[in-house]
Design brief:
CATH topology of the largest domain: hpI Integrase, Chain A
Subunit structure: Forms a cyclic heterotetrameric complex composed of two molecules of XerC and two molecules of XerD.
Keywords: Cell cycle, Cell division, Chromosome partition, Cytoplasm, DNA integration, DNA recombination, DNA-binding
Main location: cytoplasm
Helix content: 55-70%
Order of helices and strands: HHHHHHHEEEHHHHH
Shape: globular
Radius of gyration: 22 Å
CATH superfamily of the largest domain: Intergrase catalytic core
Organism: Balneicella halophila
Largest sheet: 3 strands, antiparallel
Number of helices: 12
Distance between the termini: 60 Å
Pfam family, one: Phage_integrase
């Protein structure tokens, strides 16, 4: 039952492997609480509400709770389409108001320190790590997108890189000259030191880097320049977007660069820059 739904997400909805894994995790957790997969089709509104209350008592974040309820809602919507259920037990469920958190991003000084003050190792891994940070910051791509990059994605003539985003949507992102030159140098060093590979970023054993490895690499260097609690690849994506807006970028163009499906997702960065402006004003103005 769950496997059929996951196959539907993967092959018909064309969701990314990471998204499908999140659905699978949420559904399996609900099944474990429910007492077995065979009980999924007999679950009612009160069952869903009881699990919701359990999650809240465990102090799960509001975003986590919303995601899990969204997973259940999508699962039961699919079962209704298949004629297995007449109603969706998640419908009419009242969820706690989702907290609005502004994205974490690096300040200008922290960004400068990341690329001018940190000393990267003078070997393959040092070259690779610096290139990873430059590409995250220079393009704003997601960690899953960078993990899936192949050599063939780089168009040196047009100075573009092809990215496969959410739901397998392709987009082209311009590459700055220093990023393009950095990629050329990195690939030469990589091929010489560890061998050729269709994947762009690899380990010293010539295996493609996964999301967790990329997360570790980014956290390692962000920890040296930022005291923020969040030090993930997404911080560099937020930094790219925020600094682009601060420099006068058109918000619709930024939406396309980030691969957002709606403008609302991009507009959060306008709030972010406004809040930072207020903070800086209060700190700097003599009568604030």
């Amino acid at each position: 039952m769950i496997s059929e739904f996951l196959a539907y997400l993967k092959y018909q909805k064309r969701y990314s492997p990471h998204t499908v894994e999140a659905y699978e995790l949420d559904l399996n957790q609900f099944v474990a609480w429910l007492g077995g997969e065979q009980l999924l089709l007999t679950a009612i509104h009160s069952d869903i509400r009881s699990w919701l209350l359990k999650l809240l008592k465990e102090n799960k974040s509001q975003s986590t709770v919303h995601r899990k309820m969204s997973s259940l809602k999508a699962f039961y919507r699919y079962q209704m389409q298949q004629g297995e259920m007449k109603t969706n037990p998640v419908s009419q469920l009242t969820l706690p108001k989702k907290e609005k958190r502004l994205p974490t991003f690096l300040k200008e000084k922290e960004t400068q320190a990341l690329f001018s003050q940190i000393k990267y190792a003078d070997d393959f891994e040092g070259e690779r790590d610096e290139m990873i940070l430059n590409l995250f910051y220079g393009t704003g791509m997601r960690v899953s997108e960078l993990a899936n990059l192949k050599i063939s994605a780089i168009d040196y003539d047009r100075k573009l890189i092809k990215v496969l985003g959410k739901r397998n949507k392709e987009r082209l992102i311009p590459l700055l000259p220093f990023v393009l030159n950095g990629l050329r140098n990195y690939i030469v060093i990589r091929d010489r030191e560890v061998g050729s590979n269709i994947h762009l970023f690899v380990s010293s054993s010539n295996q493609a880097l996964n999301r967790n490895q990329l997360y570790y690499i980014v956290k390692k260097y962000l920890s040296q320049v930022s005291s923020a609690l969040k030090r993930s690849p997404h911080v560099l994506r937020h930094t790219f977007a925020t600094q682009m807006l601060n420099s006068g970028a058109d918000i619709n163009a930024l939406k396309e660069l980030l691969g957002h499906s709606s403008l609302a997702a991009t507009q959060v960065y306008t709030h972010s820059t406004q809040e930072q402006l207020k903070k800086d004003y209060k700190q700097a103005h003599p009568r604030a």
